[in-house]
Amino acid sequence: RETALWMVACLLLSSLPTGQLHSTCHAFVGETVVLPCSTSPPGELTLSKSLLYWQIGTTHLVHFFQNGQDSLKDQDKKFRGRTSLFLDQMKYGNLSLKISSVQLGDDAEYSCIYREAESHQTKKSTIKLKVSAPPRIEEPPSPSEQNQIPSGSPTNVPCLAMLLLSFLLLVPLGLWHL
Fold it and tell me: Does 10 fall in a domain?
């Protein structure tokens, strides 16, 4: 499925050095998307002494993780209940953010900011999320619609009738002259 392809592509992009990567992810409204972020070099992180911010600009807090747990009391209301981290993978450097039920308003540039409390090292990655309306899927006509005479402009039906009438009149006339 296309969503799975985008998730794999985004995760592959996350293996590049953090801080230098500016990637783009795509999602349709209603889908779940994973915004990639990882530390490099990969190694075991001390999460109890780390901070992880996911934000839009400087005023919209999308997700915050500190002292080994989520801290979402100041999270932007439009993201409540729709974001999560990969807690079982974080200690190995996967800081990616999952956003469910993507909305058109989620289209933005996101920053993943990771800070180790002891070393005061900060790493930042920027990911652009582009959100589109879901594609329209044309439904094939139902069997009952396929048996109906197609509706078109009013001139189509009289032309067909004239053609049939001409054929019916000309065949007997042509046979009479033989």
Answer: no
With respect to residue 177, please indicate whether it lies within any of the assigned structural domains: no
Residue 151 lies in a domain: no
Nearest CA to 18 out of 115, 117, 119, 131 is that of 115
151-171 tens-digit pLDDT = 544 444 443 444 444 444 444
pLDDT tens per residue across span 20-32: 446 899 999 999 9
CA distance linking residue 87 with residue 159, whole number of Å:
70
* Residue 69, amino acid: Q
- Within a 10 A sphere around the Cβ of 96, how many other Cβ atoms? 22
**Residue 128 burial by Cβ neighbours in a 10 Å radius (0-12, 13-18, 19+):** middle
> What are the distances in angstroms from CA 74 to CA 53, 61, 78, 116?
11, 7, 12, 21
Q: Give the domain CATH number at 29.
A: 2.60.40.10
Domain that holds residue 116: 21-132
Report pTM: 0.64
